Amino acid sequence: MKLPDTDPNGFRGRFLREAAARTPFGAASGILRLLPDAVAVPEDADDVAALVRWAAETRTPLVPRGAGTGMPGGNVGGGVSVDLVSGFRGVEVDAAARRARIQPGITLAELNAAAAPHGLRFPVDPSSGARATLGGLIANNSAGSHSVRYGATRAWVESLELVLADGTRTATERGRAPEEPRLRAIVDRVRREILPHRARIEAKWPRVRKNSSGYAIREFLRSGDTVDLLVGSEGTLALVTGAVVRLDPVPAAHGLAVLEFTELERAGEAVQTVLRHDPSTCEILDRTFLDLVRDGGEDPGYPLRPGLEAILLVEMERDSVAEVEAALAGLRAAVEGLADRVVVSSDPAEQERLWHVRHAASPLIAAMAKGRVSMQFIEDGVVPVPRLPDYIRALRASLAGHGLQAVIFGHAGDGHLHVNPLVDVSAPGWQKRIEEMVYEIAEVVARLGGTMAGEHGDGRLRAPVLETVWGRETVGLFRRVKEAFDPAGILNPGVILPLPGQRPLDAIGPYPLPA
Description:
The chain is an alpha+beta fold and 515 residues long. The protein folds into three domains: 14-83, Uridine Diphospho-n-acetylenolpyruvylglucosamine Reductase, domain 2, CATH 3.30.43; 91-249, Uridine Diphospho-n-acetylenolpyruvylglucosamine Reductase, domain 3, CATH 3.30.465.10; 251-455, 3-Layer(aba) Sandwich (Vanillyl-alcohol Oxidase, Chain A, domain 3), CATH 3.40.462.10. The protein contains 18 helices and 20 strands. The protein has helices at 19-22, 45-58, 108-115, 134-140, 147-150, 181-194, 198-204, 217-223, 226-230, 264-275, 287-295, 321-334, 348-359, 361-368, 388-401, 430-448, 466-470, 472-485; strands spanning 14-16, 28-29, 32-33, 38-41, 62-65, 80-83, 91-94, 99-102, 120-121, 157-163, 169-173, 239-246, 248-249, 253-261, 281-286, 310-318, 341-345, 373-374, 405-411, 416-423. The strands form five sheets. It has a seven-stranded antiparallel β-sheet with strand order 17-14-16-15-19-20-18, with helices on both faces. Strands 7-8-12-10-11 form a five-stranded antiparallel β-sheet. A four-stranded mixed β-sheet has the order 1-4-6-5. A hairpin with a 4-residue loop joins strand 7 (91-94) and strand 8 (99-102).
């Protein structure tokens, strides 16, 4: 696209048109690369409003961006990349209320550092939390390994400060209808559009424990809160310039159980048993992961005997060591006959050693690449917990059928798996093959009753398979939501809802050929 000749009227921040200035910002998102036409660096929320008014008048696309840790391309695109970090670094902790007022540019680590002196934390914990911003967590409805107990970001957001697609500044709060006329009119329209379909939405909605795909119309209908609709909307409905989030006490004690399985079905059954014991994590390492670590030559900190199909890492958080030990003992008794072996510990140093097996694969994946590229293109699928073994088998079969080596791991307690394939980008037709796999796995996930995005969002990567997973009617309702909030389509176009002709890997690479 060609940018308008005039800069935003009333915009006080920096507006970077030069390629050299904008290249470091807004070009990458996971495996996708897309250079913006310009970068806007607003000073504050009023500046964002001025920018959006200009974009609405000139029909210029805006792509909100935080730290760039998002995986599926929700933070890259043509038009103007909007830096919501530099001018948005505020955080104020209200310890008595267990709340924090934040701006979108602070990282999760910075929020937790501010909350820690009060014995508090934000319990949602994506692995990128040292760099990921709160704006990104809100945009994607991010989760993490502790979501099995604490849920995803949506559950912890109390209010949002927004700039709408026409440049209106407004806010919305749980338990209260929007007061500002423009937002109230939009929300009323959305309610009128989707309320007649409530029974179908409830009947057809995937029965998964977490989801960051599509728009949260079911949650909005259940709660009536606009906050629920906007969290997870990936900057396609409004730009978030501030929020109030709830905090939770830091647990006093932790314990860990390692459960071994030589049969995949028993591992799946054990997950459902584990959930009845209120774990804070229930992570799965599949055979593909365990074989890599066992054969990698590095001490994983835990003896991985041959023949294992999977292990579960189950963490317990309680108010005392005695309560942790009681919880671990109850879990051990409950999985007797399902797990082949169980190791438990309430000692912090021993737990760290046991967790090491979970972290041992990353350097090994890099070492085994040998000219191949690690590509997370099917990295976020989630299915109902009872279908987890079926999903693992389908992933293994699809990877083998496409000749790809990969590791499978993830959040078993939520039926949520991450997949890390290695792709030979020197092989003819490699891009076509992995795109075929995106569609193939989307069909598997849909058949199993899940979605393609448990915690990372749809972005650009998964937008083209949205209809495969959700069906035409539900995607039609998503489009009505988008049209109500952003009738000109300037906010993050091509994210969540695809543009005509859009393909999953349109913006992939480029990747240099191996030497």
